[in-house]
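Quarterly update from the structural biology core.
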Amino acid sequence: RPEQPAAQAAVAELASRSFTPLRWPVLLAWAQQKEDFAVDFRHRSVCAALNRALRLWMQSVAAPEERSNGVSLTHLFRWIWPDVSCEHVATMLTWVCLKEIGKIRYATPRVIDQDQRTRLENMFHNMDADHKGHCNAKDISGGNNLGVEAKLKNIVDAETVRAVCGDRAIHEIEFLELMCEDGFRAHFDAQQVVLRDGNKLTRQSREVAGETIWVLQDPPAWERPQRQLIDAIEGEIKRWRRLAVLEAANLQPLDDIGDDDDAG
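Predicted structure, tokenized:
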């Protein structure tokens, strides 16, 4: 189901302003929308209580600076769980990050089977007739000794190879990656895969979230804000992990931790 306007505004604001607090009008519009569109009376009563509590806190409790800056996600966490530790805040942010990562990741491409790999390796060795350990564009197109008829039957010419790879040495692993079936990895450690539609997937390590994922090498315009949001959440996770170390060492009480520290 398409996201409703208030939710879209919240995502857009987070993406465009990095992991900064939500403005009060956006948050209150979201809370009101949740109350208005609740599916049953129990859900509606909970949403109504949240809506009233947010408005009351903003009007009666929030300092002028808090009214101006808005509300961060971690502030909401600590409202709901007042005694939550910094380590647990980092864990919750990691869950959020994994959810957002799921919106851009692709299924891990399969590795070609051994029979396919063997055929490609044999093809490479046949092209590398001089046993140099590499091929060039001329080798891949059939070498220097092909007659006119053989050249016509060949599936690729030297100019096409040069246009794709340049006029350089191509070693066996790269040859496997170039020649394997679209949508598959040529070997376990491959970092890039060509899809059947011509787009390329690349392996990306999200070390903060503890995930290695496959994503489009050239993301479409709609995906770029999502990647910015994920980067911002990872920056916030790192910040709370640092605070968790301080908290564990009793160097900084939880109550002294502000929500407006620089992320990253």
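The longest helix spans residues 224-248.
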